Amino acid sequence: MNALDLCLDLSRGYATxxxxxxxxxxxxxxxxxxxxxxxxxxxxSDEGRLRRVDxxxxxxxxxxxxxxxxxxxxxxxxxxxxxxxxxxETSPIGSMGVVRSWIPExxxxxxxxxxxxxxxxxxxxxxxxxxxxxxxxxxxAFGEIxxxxxxxxxGYHNDADPGKITEDGWFRTGDxxxxxxxxxxxxxxxxKDVIKSGGEWISSxxxxxxxxxxxxxxxxxxxxxxxxKWMERPVAYVVLKPEFRGQVTPxxxxxxxxxxxxxxxxxxxxxxxxEVPKTSTMKFDKKALRVTAEPIKEEARxxxxxx
Length: 307
Known about the structure:
Number of helices: 10
Helix content: 25-40%
Oligomer: single chain
CATH topology of the largest domain: GMP Synthetase, Chain A, domain 3
């Protein structure tokens, strides 16, 4: 199967793609599985079709972070997800999700859910979102990823957007992450999407991952909306799996989250929608959600003020 065949199959739907995977493909890269379409198709495939798909040994996913439920689901159908991170300005890979030899077997899935370690030749640091100070690699502190290296962009044509390069030559990526002592990166948000509530930061990406772990949820996107007391509060837009439409309440989602995130991370509102809007690269289009979002309801504001 060549690249043109693959693009045509994706345009016809994942069922067509699965039928065409006949062992000639070693890996798939750069696909977005935010809607879980391929996983659903593979899960419903007959044994013969699954044997053919098993020969595509690796999935390289970069457009958006892979949730635990999606990675576990892909493992079950014989496809190993390889996390990576990068962008056009990093040409394009900045980190790869390799699992170090000393990582215990019980911890390997948690490591695979991270975006990996810096690629050879790429230097990465994280800096405080407010002060710009470099932060420790402790797996807790999170800040903007900045990187540099021989093939990392050092500027734009005609000096467009000069603020993207720091005075000491680091490229500002706009991604927010933690790094642990072994150098593993965990993307927690974009600088434009991170929610500041009462002086504390809330990761919309982590909150989305927690919601999408609910067995009845297909997709979830979280944005911050204005709150008169807390500056911003999270609001979750949730798409249910087709078989559960109309059968899940906001209280069920909040109850599911109650032991998974801090109480003050809980969304002020759960808003059920038919589909999360997507960008051309199949990322959640949070700008579109913000433009059309209704203000947080008064009763939700009152509840947030009591917490």
